[in-house]
Amino acid sequence: MAWQGIMNKYKKYLPVNENTPEVSLFEGNTPLIKSVNLSKELGIELYFKFEGLNPTGSFKDRGMFMAVAKAIEEGSKTIMCASTGNTSASAAAYGARYGLRTIVLIPDGYVAMGKLAQALQYGAEIVAIEGNFDDALNLVKEITATHPITLVNSLNPYRIEGQKTGAFEIVDDLGDAPDYLAIPVGNAGNITAYWKGFKEYHKAGKISKLPKMKGYQAKGASPIVEGKTFENPETIATAIRIGNPASWDKAINARDESNGSIKAVTDEEILYAYKKLSDKEGIFAEPASAASLAGVIQSVKNGDIKKGSKVVAILTGNGLKDPDTCLDIAEKPVSIPGTLESVLELIEKK
Ligand code: F0G
């Protein structure tokens, strides 16, 4: 049968009742791609969960359908979020499809071009503020607490409920949990959601063991690693440019309960992994997503991830969202006369 969306597939694990409307852009069911080259290089069995193939190109859709369904069920007409880009694109798409007013607050100048284009295209009301994501989220929390507007950031528990299905899909594909789950950490909702999903599947007897959760923050925005908030977080991975994660405690809980870790990766490590992923596996993910592979490379090197183990790295967003980063680091194509002679001369030089 054709894919019917997450709500249909995992209904019994979700907060769905007879009053919950069916909300879907056919999110989920993303591929678990087995590595063909990096597995060998690293000496592990590596898989990529490519969340960039969701309808708006990121894992946010996995939680947004659920948050929007509950907002409609509760009679809400307006949804709002702060965003480094992906949440706003996702909220805007579902908001458009189900006739909700969608308001998004973004840090001016720090949202990748493709994400901004998406929010505009889906018709969201976009407010760019002078400030960072943390400032935007504080404003959204205050406004939604005092107005009849539904907050759809991952502080909304329904977002977590939807996103936990990523763990279900991995297990349904592999037949058990992996040894390690590598995941980028920004506002810390996704690591919280995956851990919840694995625990629920464990309780349901679907897996024999729980994975160790390996979270990775960008070094310039690594409050959980450092144990202190960052006033001015900075990283090339703008999606995770966050200095005071909303689900900080829950991320620590996932780390500790799973016997895992949350570590920092530098922008250099992120960019190396970003390019490597495309060069060696044919996968184009955005820089923040590459933080999970950067972390795997680092952790295998220092023995934190054991050789021979089964590792799933979550690739949270599509590389097409952020063409600027790619173009900045790429060698530009040369322009030559359109003659057989000059084309042959060029390709024979290689
Ligand atoms: N990867 C990408 C591509 C993201 O967009 C985000 C978060 C994360 C990783 C981190 O996930 O916040 O659950 O720890 N993006 C949010 C946004 C903040 O506004 O789109 P997290």
UniProtKB/TrEMBL annotation:
Question: Per its Swiss-Prot or TrEMBL entry, what cofactor is needed?
Answer: pyridoxal 5'-phosphate
List GO BP terms, alphabetically.
isoleucine biosynthetic process; L-serine catabolic process; L-threonine catabolic process; threonine biosynthetic process
Question: What protein does this entry describe?
Answer: Threonine synthase
Family note: Belongs to the threonine synthase family.
Q: Which InterPro entries match?
A: Rhodanese-like_dom, Ser/Thr_Dehydratase, Ser/Thr_deHydtase_PyrdxlP-BS, Thr_synthase-like, Thr_Synthase_bac/arc, TrpB-like_PALP, TrpB-like_PALP_sf
Which CDD domains would you find in this protein's record?
Answer: Thr-synth_1
Q: Which reaction is recorded as catalysed by this protein?
A: O-phospho-L-homoserine + H2O = L-threonine + phosphate
NCBIfam families registered for this protein in UniProt: thrC
